[in-house]
Write a structure and sequence with these properties.
MUL1-like; transmembrane helix; 14 strands
């Protein structure tokens, strides 16, 4: 009986796995190891998609497993079909086929990344539903969700772009590239077209992630939160483009001097800030400990329990999680479906 995937793509020839197939799979596994290794070694390199960067938290182990699945999906059409490197496929010779194969692989890999975002966000949503919604002054213990105002327990941090008092901020930098056509005179339409055609970015880098213990206050009391190991769902609050020959203003300049891995560049930089400011409404999902008689929320040894700090009320955070689940599901279906269809077509399979 044909599998659903095979019937959706077209008839798949029954052929045994050959030695060439194993060699190709081994080569793809080397690429998989390289990609996972780069991800594990470059914690300061972030996803270029701002929406995903602010909402998805996919760990290295899950990322490695997802990319392994993507590798098999990329390899399978050619293992059961034909290799188009000898001019036998619909695209043509080996040089012309490299680009569409790379595009298909990128689509499939991106789709599997969103599958990971779907799984982790779904887990967070289920955990939030299981948690006891508790007032800050009535925290006793166990899995809780607490909402209230942010209050500092010590000297607050100074946000690098807005300069506001904060208990948590993240600073990212993106190196910008643009050709000299940007400086030529022209109308608004010409300027927009030049931006679209000539403007590109490097992957954003995390320059600073500073956080300090804080309290959640309500009219009935407070609960202490240590966010050292919490997953961050901060929204971007400010951005600033600094020209290559321009000196960054304070306090941004001080934060850049503190970043040990920061390198100066002869190109424009765009700095972005995400901040949890003093006085903001925040929701914390985690395990509370009332052994000290006051109640506090911090990381535990329970690896399958989420510890999340997110701006907004409990209802707003639950809605944001649902929206993220829907966005990840849609992105995964579109990306994996289109990438898989492209690869099966390149491998010589007929599409419906």
């Amino acid at each position: 009986m044909a599998s659903p995937a095979a019937s959706a793509i077209g008839p798949v020839p029954a052929a045994a796995i050959s030695g060439l197939d194993l060699v190709v799979l081994l080569g793809l596994l080397h690429v998989w190891g390289l990609v996972v290794g780069i991800d594990a070694a470059n914690d300061d390199v972030l996803s270029g998609l701002d929406w995903a960067r602010r909402r998805l938290h996919v760990g290295t182990r899950l990322y490695a497993l997802l990319m392994l699945g993507a590798t098999v999906v990329v390899w399978l059409p050619f293992a059961v079909g034909s290799y188009p490197f000898f001019g036998t496929g619909p695209v043509g010779g080996s040089r012309r086929v490299i680009v569409p194969i790379a595009v298909g692989g990128l689509l499939v890999g991106s789709g599997w990344y969103f599958v990971g975002g779907l799984l982790t966000t779904l887990r967070s949503s289920v955990t939030l539903r299981r948690a006891t919604v508790t007032d800050a002054g009535a925290v006793e213990g166990g899995l809780v969700a607490v909402s209230g105002r942010v209050a500092p327990l010590r000297e607050p941090l100074e946000a690098p772009l807005t300069g506001c008092d904060a208990v948590w901020y993240q600073l990212t930098a993106t190196t910008l590239r643009a050709d000299d056509a940007e400086d030529r005179a022209g109308g608004a339409a010409d300027s927009l077209l030049r931006s679209v055609l000539t403007y590109s970015t490097d992957p954003p880098r995390l320059l600073a992630d500073r956080r300090t213990p804080f309290a959640i206050e309500t009219d009935t009391g407070r609960v202490v939160v240590d966010p050292a190991a919490a997953a961050c769902r901060l929204e971007r609050t400010a951005s600033n483009r600094i020209a290559a020959d321009e000196r960054p203003p304070e306090p941004l300049a001080s934060r850049l001097r503190e970043a040990a891995d920061f390198e100066t560049s002869d190109r424009d930089q765009c700095y972005r800030e995400a901040v949890l400011a003093v006085g903001d409404t925040v929701t914390v999902l985690g395990v509370a400990d009332s052994a000290d008689g006051r109640g506090s929320i911090a990381v535990t040894d329970d690896w399958h329990t989420d510890f999340i700090v997110a701006p907004g009320s409990n209802r707003e955070v639950a809605r944001a999680l649902r929206e993220t689940i829907g966005g990840c599901a849609l992105a995964a279906v579109v990306l994996i479906g289109s990438g898989t269809a492209l690869l099966w077509w390149i491998a010589g399979h007929s599409l419906p």
